[in-house]
Predict the 3D structure of the following.
Amino acid sequence: MHLSLIAALALTAAPPARDEGPLVRALWLVQRYGTAVAVDPANDQRVKGVLFKALGKDGELTFPELEGFMEPEAFKQLAGNDDRLSPDEIRKAVEIAAPESRGQLLPKVREHADSLTTSFDMIDEPHRLAGKTLADWIATNYQPGKPLDVIVVCTGNSRRSILGSTLGNIAAAYYGMPEIRFHSGGTAPTAFNARTVNTLKAIGVEVEPTGKEAARSEGEPQTANPVYRVRWGTSMEATEFSKRYDDPANPQKGFAALMVCGEADAACPFVKGAALRVSMPYLDPKIFDGGAYEGAKYAERRDDIGRLMLAVMMQARRALSRR
């Protein structure tokens, strides 16, 4: 074969399959089949430490090593008669547990979500407690196939709320509950910020302008308010633009309202139509606009919100599986 042809084939060959490693696979196993203690982000670092020690050199797991983190019945069902989980059994259990909607996420989005599930120990206590409140509400109200709505609220509906709605939708699909739909809104809307667009695109989310423009803010009449199509998976997309939380494009009753900025939290003590109101404020990445760390800080905020949304869905799914 001609050398130039060989080189061309090498360049176009499919990349090797990603190997997450035995620790990550064991972590995913516990996140799926573990006890309430195991899926609490407060214990995430301890779980990883126990798994690292338990896996040892052979990569196998036994129940005594995981006691308190897995129910005996669940371990027995996965391990079979030898009461040991081999590396291959762990891999297969994780693969079987992956919901169909996870496979429908865009590849780069899926990879980013995978990565965030390994860092639940980075969720601070106030957000962890707020997330547990949301997870409990979802577990109580979720019905397969029936929409369950969440509105993420910040002041301008330009940064944190849109990051929250998009990462919330990704998390819902990742854990097999795409009926849970996240929306965004503000108390003083402006426009979907270009920096928010960029930080979502960086993890594989498709954000494209539709060519339409929504109504402009009374406070910023000179600021254009373009309408975007946001897509994170196969048949998984939303129309996003800056709007009030009670805009007709959003659900009007029975939703959970997540207040992700202190200003909106204070300005909106009562959210009309909300069945649940949860305060979970984050620092606005806007304060870094124009500086050397702008991109890094938007990514940091995206991932802070993203890992919380994934932890919420993980806990909700576990509660639902034990009904």
Summary: The chain is about 45% helix and 15% strand. The longest strand covers residues 206-213. Strands lie at 61-62, 84-85, 148-154, 180-186, 206-213, 226-233, 236-240, 255-259, 274-279. Confidence is low (pLDDT under 50) at residues 5-15.
